[in-house]
Design goal:
20 helices, phosphate transmembrane transporter activity, mainly alpha, symport
Length: 489
């Protein structure tokens, strides 16, 4: 059964990124195809190559930012079936929405789809899990702090796209007097300089898109692999004995620092039980810090130091212990992160040791193999090859009252590329679709071309409905999946 779940889950991740190619990567090639700068097949292949390079060079920060939205009890859950149902529900609901809006030719955000689905699943999990405390209400499973951070980036980035493209277009029009740039594309191929400019901006958007958007699928793929193949993916098996020794040394160095926060004897400090449950409680959105949180950090750090002192290679650790050690490392690292955000580490003279400890723990759990990156990048590229036409027509002809000209395409893509790179640097997911569509709208307004109200209404309606629709889809698919597995599997 696990092999069936594994195959189905991986197929859905690939399918999600394939459909993502319809929406987001199609935006990257929209201007070069619409302006006859490149033939569609060349544009798609070129964009796919740079998406691949963007994915391969990505840090993984965005991938794990998406994962951090999931309820912590599901991320570390030992119930493989429940965890797999979560990922399947998340992907199915996002794919359904993305396919529907693509069919209508509406460029919507795959990121919004994912976040909506995750929210619906978190609510369903809170309502259906009898092990959760009675004082938790349905919205308490949602990581509101991270949700606010991500939604803020998703709201601000289109505004940056609109204003940035408008300003850049006006600057270009004032400084560059080449008339060809400001005329609608003819059937013939544009001049070499214009082609070079548009290919350059297409390249930048494709690379930036791969480095940001491709990470969402990578994060989900790694969750699946960790749950279903823990012997290979629970820990980074390429971690060197030297790195493990450094982690053990850092564990020993932070324990005395943590002990300053609790009372009692040394024996009391080391004998605290239920530490995993305590850290899981603290990591809930409403979880409050108390002395037991510090005791749990000490207990789990001691466990990691002991295990890695005995086995200086992950190959020597049993499969069950690898899964447990991953959970330990995940909880410790995320607890330190939450303490840092709450300014609880400012009281320590050597808080840098705790930050370094967290970073070392992240290295053994937050990793993405190259073959996963390649699979995601290829899925994006293939999706673009199949479904680019609908989105290209919307971007080129249906946003403004005039057809997209060369300068508008270039400025919108340049601003899109810059915004995505900045978001990737700080580890926040953004929507290529929203930024580019807003950028084109901004350039149209700057050129006094006006906007097509009907298209804007449809776009805004689709954008506004994406979150609530995917919340409902995520809630429904997760609830149905749990019912089916409990009754028939």
């Amino acid at each position: 059964m696990e092999h069936l779940f594994l195959g189905l889950a991986i197929a859905l991740v690939i399918g999600f990124e394939f459909v993502n190619g319809f929406h987001d990567t199609a935006n990257a090639v929209a201007t070069v195809i619409y302006t006859n700068t490149l033939k569609p097949i060349y544009a798609v292949v070129w964009s796919g190559i740079w998406n691949l390079l963007g994915v391969l060079t990505s840090s993984g920060a965005v991938a794990f930012a998406i994962i951090s939205l999931l309820p912590v009890e599901l991320v570390i859950n030992g119930n493989v079936e429940q965890s797999t149902v979560m990922v399947l529900a998340l992907l199915i609901s996002a794919i359904i929405w993305n396919l529907g809006t693509w069919y209508l030719g509406l460029p919507v955000s795959s990121t919004h789809s994912l976040i909506g689905s995750i929210t619906g699943i978190a609510i369903a999990n809170s309502l259906s899990n009898p092990n959760l405390s009675d004082d938790r209400i349905w919205w308490s499973s949602i990581n509101w702090s991270k949700m606010q951070e991500i939604l803020t980036s998703l709201v601000i980035s289109p505004l940056l796209g609109f204003c940035g493209a408008a300003i850049l277009f006006l600057i270009a029009k004032a400084l560059i007097k080449k008339e060809e740039l400001y005329s609608a594309p003819a059937e013939n191929i544009p001049s070499l300089g214009v082609r070079a400019l548009l290919i350059l901006t297409c390249t930048g958007v494709s690379f930036a898109h791969g480095s940001n958007d491709g990470q969402k699928g990578m994060g989900l793929m790694m969750l699946i692999l960790v749950w279903l193949l823990p012997s290979f993916f629970a820990l980074n098996m390429h971690t060197s004995p030297q790195a493990i020794a450094e982690l053990v040394a850092r564990s020993h160095s932070v324990i005395p620092i943590l002990e300053t926060q609790i009372k009692g004897t040394s024996t009391d400090r080391q004998s605290f039980e239920n530490s995993l449950e305590e850290l899981t409680r603290f990591l809930q959105p409403q979880g409050q810090l108390n002395e037991n949180t510090w005791r749990s950090l000490i207990s789990e750090s001691q466990a990691i130091a002991h295990q890695f002192s005995v086995d200086n290679s992950f190959e020597l650790i049993s499969e069950s212990d690898r899964r447990q050690l991953r959970n330990d490392a995940y909880l410790i690292a995320n607890t330190i992160t939450k303490l840092e955000k709450q300014n609880q580490l400012n009281t320590f003279d050597r808080q840098d040791l705790l930050i370094d400890y967290r970073n070392q723990l992240d290295k053994i759990t937050k990793f993405i193999p190259y073959w996963v990156k390649i699979a995601i990048a290829l899925s994006l590229g293939l999706g673009t090859m199949i479904g680019w036409q609908r989105i290209v027509v919307t971007v080129g002809e249906k946003i403004g009252n005039e057809h997209l000209n060369y300068a508008q395409g270039a400025t919108a893509e340049l601003v899109t590329m810059t915004t995505i790179v900045a978001a990737d640097y700080v580890g926040l997911p953004v929507s290529t679709t929203h930024i580019l569509s807003s950028g084109i709208a901004g350039s149209m307004v700057a050129n006094r071309a006006g906007l097509q109200i009907d298209t804007l209404k449809n776009l805004l309606l689709a954008w506004l409905l994406t979150l609530p629709s995917c919340i409902l889809l995520g809630f429904a698919t997760y609830s149905i999946g749990l019912f089916v597995t409990q009754k028939f599997i």
